[in-house]
Amino acid sequence: xxxxxxxALALVLLLAVLSNRQACxxxxxxxxxxxxxxxxxxxxxxxxxxxxxxxxxxxPTKAVExxxxxxxxxxxxTDSDGVYxxxxxxxxxxxxxxxASPLISANGNSSTEVTVGEGATSDGIDFALALGGVITGKxxxxxxxxxxAERVSLKPLDKKEAASISESIAGMFGERMYSTDDRGIYxxxxxRPGRYIVxxxxxxxxxxxxxxxxxxxxxxxxxxxTDEAKATPVQVTSGAEAxxxxxxxxxxxxxxxxxxxxxxxxxxxxxxxxxxxxxKAQKExxxxxxxxxxxxxxxxxxxxxxxxxxxxxKGEFRFSSVAPGSYKLxxxxxxxxxxxxxxxxxxxxxxxxxxxxxxxKLDIKVHRGAAVTGVVVLESADPQDSLxxxxxxxxxxxxxxxxxxxxGNCVVAADGSFKLGGLKAGKVTIRPFSMSAKRPGLLRxxxxxxxxxxxxxxxxxxxxxxxxxxxxxxxxxxxxxxxQGGSLPPSAKMRAMxxxxxxxxxxxxxxxxxxxxxxxxxxxxxxxxxxxxxxVQVFAILPGRQGGPRNVSSKQTVIVxxxxxxxxxxxxxxxxxxxxx
Length: 581
Hints:
The structure is a single chain. It is built from four helices and 44 strands. It is mainly beta and about 575 residues long. It has five domains: about 30-130, Carboxypeptidase-like, regulatory domain (Immunoglobulin-like, Sandwich), CATH 2.60.40; about 135-250, Immunoglobulin-like (Sandwich); about 260-370, Sandwich (Immunoglobulin-like); about 370-470, Carboxypeptidase-like, regulatory domain (Immunoglobulin-like), CATH 2.60.40; about 475-580, Immunoglobulins (Immunoglobulin-like, Sandwich). Strands 1, 2, 5, 7, 9 and 10 form a six-stranded mixed β-sheet that branches. The longest helix is centred in the first third of the chain and has 17 residues, at about 1-20. The two termini are about 25 Å apart.
């Protein structure tokens, strides 16, 4: 259910951004910096290439702000020597990348994260490009007529390409989307070498599927099969075109309707405005039906949901054009997320199989979950500071037990009170979110006056007396990495992360600060920290001796305050023995 939860949370964050437009307005004026470098194509200076610097945010709420604020990006164009200069950059982290649609990175680094200091210039941020590959073909209906404006999706089979796509907004769910023209022809260019599964007949991400009003078709893969296991991968090479990758929809495989209701398990009453999704379910050994993969933190749907919808006032949902196969239904609520009460239930998942007829009367039963109630308070050295200055604050609770994962979220009321409902039994971890530019950080969570990192909750239990203590999250760690024992290969990546010295990543996967990239100059910046003692770790991901990646790391402890950035210097010894992963 984690994918469905992520989609629901993305919708919540998007709505919160739209209701808090002032979030992007408040910024402290500081002396600006710049980024310079060069772009080459096949070893020669590349003139006229646009290079873009976009503010880089590890906080997902800031990423949503970035999506809605395209003017935050700074652009420059390379000159006749292939040199560019990005100027007027406020201090902070930026993702820098060349924008040249037919071209791809020659060394695998399509973008890099650069830390810009106040009044400083980060130079030597270079890129090497080469001509990418092409996949082209025609989409037709069962009678051979062209299908116009039909989306075509690519699913990379090579891990390296999958990783690069998943890092982009367009590939948030592991696929890239394109459409056919008035002849039914599509042409996808700028592709990295590798193998791809080509398909059409469905929206390639849950958000598009959710809002799409177009006719529904059964997803069909090249060469015109509805079973992905029978699809033929398309091999792409740099600078070459894979032509004739045609797909024809079948007249006999129109798909089937899957329908049902979402109901309260105790009262049998319908649940309106519940988000329902289905996805292919994976088989596991010994299971004659279907199940889903376990990812280490619980059970959840794997892959992109095949369909996404919401229930009507009668609690009914309906999916059309579902191909034969084994599936699993999951549901969560989006209708109750706008108020302090948040979601009050959790739902059972439902497995079903489509064979040769419609599947009807599927009941998804929801249960009144456990709840956590309490208050959010602010501790700040600034006497003028208050919760109101942080805009709309949300809380997210993740619950993990031996074999399941669930979550709940809510909006904190104006008086600081909250209720996190709809939770399964297990170990609860609470984290805050805010859409304000002045973002609070989590200082601690208290239960009945005792500080806790997490706590157990039982079925139908309502836990009270929880205090979520926030403070200003303006602490910064500014780091510098020195390389010894060799040189980093072009494909190597360096990242830095920090967590409170007395806590590692918790059972829900949260870190005190998400990993950030170390730029080519060896600089990095970790922001949005609360005061305390942190362990900073830098690791380089290198080619391994047996083909897999090898990690070499270095650690240092540092004290973070709100008064000035904490400075750290670490050394990565490439000659040291690292772990092969």
